[in-house]
Amino acid sequence: MSMIPTLLDKRPPHVRFEDREYGINQEASATAGRPVPRIVTMACITPPGTKDEHVKIAEDWLPQLKRKALNGEYPVEWYNFIDMQYSEYKKGNELPREGTPIQTWAAINNTQRATLKALQITTVEDLAEYPDSGLGNLGLDGRYVRDLARAWMNEGKDKGINAKALADANARIAAQEETIASLNARLAVLEEGKRGPGRPRKTEAA
């Protein structure tokens, strides 16, 4: 079956990668003195609207797909995403089928990315919808990271820099408010200390 999309194909195929035994690894077998299976990464491809899965050797299929994309026979953005999926799979990561992957979102650092991954937050869209009640799970900068996701989505992918600037501004405002509240609390303690224990607050005569 041809994997070239038709005008009716509005969505890319679902592609997943997995390692399978495929023949014999001759070099490893000679060293071990026994048959050692060859392990290769397979691309399991399911066209949209069907349940038929086509399995191809990833290292053979991807170059073919790239040539088709360069020749205008396959959507370039589909190829780019599939190629990214493969790269992340080789690194031990899985990219989500829908949404903007946290794994490849450049607006956060690796520490933040690891925290989100541990919480199984895999897309920017999931992060943007994270509830206030769980922000503590995201770390000290949890609210900032979630606001960044919301701003990024509101601004649009093409305006990610503006979204980050907005999130940074919100974070600065929140920090300033916390600082002011802390200073007010310290002033209240100092004033209480000046009056001394049990000393009534001075009031003006009526």
Q: How would you describe what is shown here?
A:
The chain is 48% helix and 12% strand. By secondary structure, it is of the alpha+beta class. It folds into 2 domains: 87 residues, no CATH class; 100 residues, no CATH class. The protein has a 3-stranded antiparallel beta sheet with strand order 1-2-3. β2 and β3 form a beta hairpin. The chain starts with 13 loop residues before the first strand and ends in an 11-residue tail after the last helix.
Structural class: alpha+beta
Describe the largest sheet. 3 strands, antiparallel
- C-alpha geometry: elongated
Total domain units: 2
Record the strand order, biggest sheet.
1-2-3
Strand tally is: 3
Low-confidence spans: pLDDT under 50, at least 5 residues? Answer: 1-8
Fill in the keyword field for this structure:
206 residues; alpha+beta; 2 domains; 3-stranded antiparallel β-sheet; 3 strands
Per-chain topology:
Blueprint: E1 14-24, H1 26-32, E2 37-46, E3 54-57, H2 58-70, H3 76-90, H4 110-118, H5 124-128, H6 142-155, H7 160-195
Helix pairs in contact: 2-3, 6-7
Brief overview:
This protein has 7 helices and 3 strands. It is of the alpha+beta class and 206 residues long. Helix 2 runs antiparallel to helix 3 and helix 6 packs antiparallel against helix 7.
